[in-house]
């Protein structure tokens, strides 16, 4: 019987996967630069729309003009890091049969892919997220959290990525049952963008829709981070928001692990 590798070996493999995922993002700096330029262009358009929405009003749904500009900068900064426009990597691996290679590694498949994506997200945030935030601060005066709120916001960013990854991985597992699950993914990303607060702040939605969304994991994937960043949730309310993010993250990872196990049981691979 083959013995399981020690935990220290597994940890080293996950760290190596995260490191390679991070370094891979720097392979094409020109692509990252033009992606940043594109995000800045559309960010400027979104700022113009929000400025028109406010008009002469000092606040809209609890957002000041400065809050709205900071919100726009944040959501543009997290597009690549959180893969808000879609992520099909695991889906392609399943369809091509390359998932068999993952099964040969002495690691947990879900944890291995999470480590890779964590490195990818960190690399994208360094290349595109941080410059975007800096440009919004320089051009439009976007704000940054300070004091203890900054630490809570950093925790929220990590949980938002983790919750979003678990959801994306779960959607990708549809490839075990569908020969072409891209359509399922496109529908899922559209729903996520609407419900996580990327297209517009959730505070601008009707009250009944906000109540419905409160029972879903989508606000934990972005909107909670925005609210903490802007100081709309402080003290006990901020900790409650982080607890909700953590609960949804754990629940989605557990569901993704269960669906992955069922998918692998029906997986059939052929080839030499």
UniProtKB/TrEMBL annotation:
InterPro entries: ABC-2_transporter-like. Keywords: Membrane, Transmembrane, Transmembrane helix. The chain crosses the membrane at residues 32-56, 68-88, 125-144, 150-175, 187-209, 238-261. It comes from the Bacteria. This is ABC transporter permease.
């Amino acid at each position: 019987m083959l013995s399981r590798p020690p935990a220290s070996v597994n940890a080293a493999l996950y760290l190596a996967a995260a490191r390679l995922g991070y370094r891979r993002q720097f392979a094409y700096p020109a692509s990252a630069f033009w992606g940043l330029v594109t995000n800045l262009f559309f960010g400027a358009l979104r700022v113009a729309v929000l400025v028109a929405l406010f008009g002469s009003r000092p606040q809209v749904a609890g957002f000041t003009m400065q809050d709205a500009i900071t919100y726009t900068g944040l959501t543009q900064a997290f597009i690549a890091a959180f893969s808000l426009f879609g992520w099909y990597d695991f889906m392609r691996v399943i369809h091509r049969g390359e998932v068999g290679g993952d099964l040969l590694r002495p690691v947990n498949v879900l944890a291995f892919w999470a480590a890779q994506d964590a490195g990818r997200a960190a690399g994208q945030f360094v290349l595109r997220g941080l410059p975007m935030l800096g440009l919004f601060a320089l051009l439009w005066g976007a704000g940054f959290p300070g004091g203890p709120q900054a630490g809570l916001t950093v925790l929220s960013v990590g949980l938002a990525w983790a919750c979003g990854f678990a959801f994306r991985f779960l959607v990708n597992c549809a490839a075990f049952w569908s020969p072409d699950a891209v359509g399922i993914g496109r529908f899922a990303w559209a729903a996520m963008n609407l419900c996580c607060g990327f297209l517009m702040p959730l505070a601008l939605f009707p009250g009944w829709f906000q109540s419905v969304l409160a029972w879903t994991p989508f606000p934990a994937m972005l909107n909670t981070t925005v609210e903490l960043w802007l100081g709309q949730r402080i003290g006990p309310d901020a900790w409650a928001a982080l607890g909700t993010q953590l609960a949804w993250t754990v629940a989605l990872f557990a569901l993704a692990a269960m669906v992955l196990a069922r998918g692998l049981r029906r997986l059939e691979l052929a080839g030499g």
